[in-house]
Amino acid sequence: MKQFDAYQVTLWVHYFISVSFLIVAVWLIVRAIRGIVKDLAYVKLDKTLAYLFIIGLYLQLLFGIILFTNLSFFGYDYQSADGTIVTVSKRLWPIEHIVLMLFALFIANLGLIFSGKSNIGKTKHRKILIYYATAIALIATSLASIYWL
């Protein structure tokens, strides 16, 4: 039986949170689009999904920072996406990823604040869609840069 170290456990928790976040994000975007098209009210479920989206981003940030520090107090080296030890990409991609994730978190928070200030359901859905879709696009750009750039 393979023994898990702290880095692997943290990485798997980060993956689990990412997949959960993706499910919430898709659900939120679909509900926002339906809310705009059908002029639906902004209900408690929509607000809950918006908060879960933000909480997911904060949790990803927390575990991402833990991974970024490489758990150096445990003595682990930096591992790239394919599991190999990489020193050159360590100085660029993790920094770029964290910066884009911080921008995504900032933009999503703005969306939550601005949508909360509106009293019209369609406007709330539109603001959630614009700001959260922008945050998702930043996250996707950051993740795509691992494999395609």
Any chance you could write out the topology, listing elements then pairs?
Layout: H1 6-37, H2 44-68, H3 93-116, H4 121-148
Helix pairs in contact: 1-2, 1-4, 2-3, 3-4
Characterize the structure shown.
This protein is mostly helical. It has one domain (about 5-149). The chain is built from 4 helices and no strands. Helix 1 packs antiparallel against helix 2 (about 45-70). The protein is elongated.
Task: Explain briefly what this protein structure is.
The chain is mainly α. It contains four helices and no strands. The chain is elongated and about 50 Å long.
Characterize the overall form. elongated
The stretches of 5 or more residues where confidence is low (pLDDT under 50) are 72-76, 86-91
Our Rg estimate from Cα atoms comes to 18 Å
> What's the domain count?
1
Oligomer: single chain
Topology, number of strands: 0
Largest sheet: none
User: What do the pLDDT scores average to?
Assistant: 83
Q: Which structural class is indicated by helix and strand composition?
A: mainly alpha
Individual helix count: 4
Report the end-to-end length measured between terminal Cα atoms: 36 Å
Helix fraction by DSSP (H/I, runs of at least 4)? over 70%
Q: Strand portion, in percent? A: under 5%
SSE string, helix = H, strand = E? HHHH
